[in-house]
Amino acid sequence: MLSGHGDDTYKYKDIRINFSSNVYNHFCHDGLYAHLASRMDCIRNYPPPTPFELEKEIASLHGISPDEVIVTNGATEAIYLIAQAFSEYTSQILQPTFTEYEDACRLYGHEIGDGCWVLGDSGQQYRINAESQSRKENKNSASSRLSVPKTSHQHPSPNTYQLIWLCNPNNPTGQVIPKPILESAIASHPDTIFIIDESYAPFTMQPLVSTSMSGAKNVLLLHSMTKEFAIPGLRLGYITGSAALLSRVRKCRMPWAVNQLAIEAAHYLLAHKSDYTLDLPALMAERERMARELSDIDGVTVYPSDTHILLCRIEGTTAAKLKDYLVNNYGILIRDASNFRGLDEHYFRIAVQTPEEDNQLLNILKEWRN
Amino acid sequence: MLSGHGDDTYKYKDIRINFSSNVYNHFCHDGLYAHLASRMDCIRNYPPPTPFELEKEIASLHGISPDEVIVTNGATEAIYLIAQAFSEYTSQILQPTFTEYEDACRLYGHEIGDGCWVLGDSGQQYRINAESQSRKENKNSASSRLSVPKTSHQHPSPNTYQLIWLCNPNNPTGQVIPKPILESAIASHPDTIFIIDESYAPFTMQPLVSTSMSGAKNVLLLHSMTKEFAIPGLRLGYITGSAALLSRVRKCRMPWAVNQLAIEAAHYLLAHKSDYTLDLPALMAERERMARELSDIDGVTVYPSDTHILLCRIEGTTAAKLKDYLVNNYGILIRDASNFRGLDEHYFRIAVQTPEEDNQLLNILKEWRN
């Protein structure tokens, strides 16, 4: 664990509005809270060493076999287990993205190369280059990543990456790789394992690689119940994909990694999914409005997004200073995105909230610019 | 994760009395439950990537520095992190003991040798042999481990084990290595790291290596809040010891491994320790009574213990059959201890409960024998 993260509310008192986390914080959890309170006695006993009942339930939900599911202590454990199961493999990570793929790969001795997502170019927004190339260690030189790359669909060579990690929709850009292009990359590189983190799947209307499609032998999909149900404090994620790949991941598991309250919550949430439906068209419309109005502010650039999160860039100050200003004066938390690989100190990320909350941020930024 | 464990209540319905877990299940958790219910909103936010506030609180409690503490997702995560931090080291594990030391060491490529605890020999109950020897793969031949060994205190040689793992008090024997002997072994092997799992510390009156003493540069102590406060469902443990060793362990951590309800529980429990005091002399006296009465049953051998857990051996049947009989007819769960290295199918383990509950087990066993 090398880098900083969003949702650092624990560092501050009196956060009124939290734009820094990608979790959608407007679900009503009353039913869940009451359920957990009624099941509190479960903490007196060990959880099952692996949450096999929950794995069966999730498998049935997706119409797959239980050996195609591994429930984890948050999607983060999934990332670390996969990196461990494929220790010292060569990995390509599409950047800028969630930092834990790289941290996990480094911990387990992977040779790492970057692909890139291209910000603000609607024609070619990403590069999946399965061919290995030596890593250029220019962490903060965004410019070199912003040039328009060629998407590669060549056949695998001895230098082909063994793993490709991508977050889809991506964090921090919110962008989705068009499904046909991703599926074609998967099909044309059967010897490369695609680890596709779909933690943000509930927050996009773009089609994604689905769990049932992923019958492909070279795909592992990461899912975050944390994000889907807004329960990051409980830690709950899962992997779906090829049973053969997962049997390798399974060997790296420690027992009791998933706590019993998270398991209880998962059973409840899967049975009450209808209480957690999002008005996605409304959220996407609000994202569009927010992006438009932010772009109208002098010196603010907003990058295209397919989800509720927006990557932005501010000129004339740094994201760190903007964050301090907002938190100290208004109790508003944003994500300083300068520590994403390929981004610099001017990038910040926000997750769209309610129109009223979004307007508060817009008005403060407009006033501050004037 | 290779082997079976106790507290497998999740496999059964209607367990009335659970002798299978080493957790003391008679604390009143009403205050904790109410506290957690009142703090439920914490699951809406991420925990801190590492629970640093809790680490500070625990450090202050032990009179050590925060860099001498790592809080973990149960003591199990501590075991796996240490095995990972010292990947491919040579490890000696005092057997029979908790299986996770070996599972973790195997996962991280350690070369493993066994020492042994000797059952039923009050003179020399254990062997810490820091000198490396090739592992004899006779998993179930208890007899070879029961011979009286010589405790070794020679100076380290090129073949000295780099790590020694011991559970003290030990699971499943309940035995404690006399403190002067353990301290002398630590002092005379400065190049060997002693990983001492004190998860059962709250359940013995024997003196143990204390956290403050462990200023020794070659000691890591494992602590289980799970066991101390009877909250195994929440997952909470910690390591104390040399900051230099722990800085190495810290590098292997993933973020958010400890869930926020566990953190909330820990703060509450440390502030309400007085609600969780055990009448240890009474529990030890009950252990003595239980051991005596069990020994009086034909064909049952009870091994000496310094804690509330008792390792037993039954002739004329197997632990698995006894377990089935008890669970199916009486809703009583015991631990089939046959999968501990060095033990065979006749060993079972129980944790002493209330005198009334213990009497139920005694009466059933007596009747069953007749």
How many strands appear in the DSSP assignment of chain A?
A: 14
**What is the N-to-C order of secondary-structure elements of chain A (H for helix, E for strand)?**
EHHEHEHEEHEHEEHEHHHEEHEEEH
Whole-Å distance between the termini of chain A?
39 Å
The global form of chain A is globular
Counting DSSP H or I runs of 4 or more residues, the number of helices of chain A is 12
> What structural class is derived from the secondary structure elements of chain A?
alpha/beta
Could you tell me which chain pair has the largest interface and how many residues each side has?
A-B, 53 and 53 residues
Question: Stretches of chain A where pLDDT falls below 50 for ≥5 residues?
Answer: 120-124, 133-158
Share of residues in strands of chain A: 15-25%
Largest sheet of chain A: 8 strands, mixed
Oligomer: homodimer
Helix percentage range of chain A: 25-40%
Strand order of the largest sheet of chain A: 2-9-8-7-6-3-4-5
Q: Provide mean pLDDT of chain A, rounded.
A: 86
Our Rg estimate of chain A from Cα atoms comes to 20 Å
